[in-house]
Amino acid sequence: MTRMAATRDGYGAALMELAENAKVVVLEADLGKSTKSQLFRKAHPERTISCGIGEQNMLLTAAGLASSGYIPFASTFAIFTERAFEHMRNGVARPNLAVHLCGSHGGTHTGTDGSSAQSIEDLAIYRTLPNVTVLHPADDVSTKLLTKQLAAHHGPSYTRTARNKTPVLYDGREHEVAIGKGIVHGSGEDVTIVACGVMVSRSLDAAELLREEGINATVVDMHTLKPLDTELLDRLSAKSGCMVTAEDHSIIGGLGGAVAEHLVSSHPVPLERVGVNDRFGESAQAEEMLEMMGLTASDVAEAAKRAMSRK
Amino acid sequence: MAADIDALEEQARRCRVEIVKMVHRAQAGHPGGSLSEIDLLVGLYGSVLNVRPDEPDWEDRDRFVLSKGHASPGMYAVLAEHGFIQHEDLKSYRVKGGVCQGHVDMKWCPGVDFSAGSLGMGLSFGLGCALAARLDGSDRNAWVMLGDGEVQEGSVWEAVMAAKHHNVGNLKAIVDVNRIQNDDFCIEQMELHDLEATWASFGWEVFTVDGHDMSAVVGALMAVAAHSEGPAVLLAQTVKGKGVSYMEDNPSFHGAAPNDEQFAQAMVELGEVAA
């Protein structure tokens, strides 16, 4: 049976392994229990900085630490990172300080807290910032590996993790996980489905549904939205001739936006974007939310067929 | 370090001349807040700030953050006095490719520790520098200069609260209380109430000084530097536009350049040319 785990647990585990580097420090804004940075806090209180419920101060305190040779990992809910967006822009991205910001509980999959806690625009806004690497991993294994890679990464980053458990995809495939490189599942030539986060496993399910109808799909886990793996996109768009993007995020500006921007300036092919269709969420269980937003495996499969029909 | 007060006063005069020249040359910029802060900056760099102009990135230097980053002409003038940049560089203020960007920028100018320009960020950045020093086991200080209007930004108070919570004895704030912000007097835009009581209520040690009395400024900075039990703030009473009569206490010169006639008058008033 498939192991289930939450990507935020991968983040917490990565911080624990990174702790052996004495320059790694952790900043929290009263949500360490949720983002899982509390594991580090309990083990290394002297290197953990509580910022209270103050995200703006957290971002710039982290920037000061980064400018002084430390490697800060700051986290809160994805939605609350957005309050400090201008701090990220002016105080972190502009001076290119290697602050690593993690927003947990991203997307509508976050569930019953409702629309106030369901960030559906975080990937879009951080993607607009020069110097910032943007990640949204699909499982706890890749989250852990990518977070660990960030410690040696130059420049700031934003990583979105999710609250709820999803299937683990990369036990035994750890060597395939690297910042900036999409992970390819399958080799179908009829359609390419590019997904991130919780939608990667749904897209793999969609590929199964399509296979039953005789359609062969390739699924890409595009965990790095920026820098985008354009080489891979070019190769797969040329091969399949159409694409689908799938994300638990607004269809405006996120993975769908990134792929669309690239395709129109390289080799345009029909593209269908599966995501949150310019609306807010509400309180419901994670699976109910994905259904409400049109983010199920069958939604992705239908989008694939639409894309193919436009070839 | 014993400071030569007369020499610092003369240096401040020279800096005022450069501030007015920079803003006049660029026909843009922020003279008022540069002229109000300049005695504090000259006093700081001339007494307690432990930095190395020939090694601006020295890891164990004191940090200085000009959080009111628009008052950059004042900082550039002091950096030139100390040799972080050349006097010739001052001509690059607001000029394409120049080290003297409109707002102080660590990516462009040696001796600048933080890229400011958006108010309310510097104190948090200074807190991060102070915490890093503590982790390093270093006694270096982080100094942050804010404007009084700037404290209307809520994030300043996040930093004030956090600095006391972590009780960083190496974080030193200076508030340039010139009573004027962009559009008008602070009391018209958003009353600041009793700053002394407010900072004290957050657990900060509060010092006050006449920000244009060089001897008092140096004495106050040394007292602030010596206070290591927790965060300390120096509330400096200043006059916006100090030294140029028509700019003094005049909200119109927060962010406006003098015309040629006004420039000539300023050079006379600042003792640069004979009347």
Q: In percent, how much strand structure appears in the residues of chain A? A: 15-25%
What's the CATH H-level homologous superfamily of the largest domain in chain A?
A: Thiamin diphosphate (ThDP)-binding fold, Pyr/PP domains
Which regions of chain A contain 5 or more consecutive residues with pLDDT less than 50? Answer: none
Rg of chain B, Cα atoms, Å? 17 Å
- SSE topology string of chain B: HHEHHEHEHHEHEH
CA-based shape of chain B: globular
Helical residue percent of chain B?
A: 25-40%
User: What number of structural domains do the residues of chain A give?
Assistant: 2
The assigned CATH architecture of the largest domain in chain A is: 3-Layer(aba) Sandwich
Which CATH top level class of chain B fits?
Answer: Alpha Beta
Average predicted confidence as pLDDT of chain A: 97
Shape verdict of chain A: globular
**Strands in their spatial order, largest beta sheet of chain A:** 3-2-4-5-7-6-12
Mean pLDDT of chain B: 97
Largest sheet of chain A: 7 strands, mixed
Extended strand count of chain B: 5
Residue windows where pLDDT falls under 50 for at least 5 positions of chain B: none
Write up this protein.
The complex is a heterodimer of chains A (311) and B (275). Chain A contains 13 helices and 14 strands. In chain A, the strands form 3 sheets. Chain A has a 7-stranded mixed sheet, with helices on both faces. Chain A is globular, with a radius of gyration of 18 Å. Chain A starts with a strand and ends with a helix. Chain A has 2 domains: 4-167, 3-Layer(aba) Sandwich (Rossmann fold), CATH 3.40.50; 180-309, 3-Layer(aba) Sandwich (Rossmann fold), CATH 3.40.50.920. In chain A, helix 4 packs parallel to helix 6 and helix 9 packs across helix 13 (297-309). By secondary structure, chain A is α/β, with parallel strands linked by helices. Chain B has a single domain, classed as Rossmann fold. In chain B, helix 1 packs across helix 3, helix 1 runs antiparallel to helix 9 and helix 4 (122-136) packs parallel to helix 5. The longest helix of chain B has 22 residues, at 5-26. Chain B is globular. Chain B has a 5-stranded parallel sheet with strand order 1-2-3-5-4, sandwiched between helices. With 275 residues, chain B is an alpha/beta fold. The interface between A and B is medium-sized, with 31 and 34 residues.
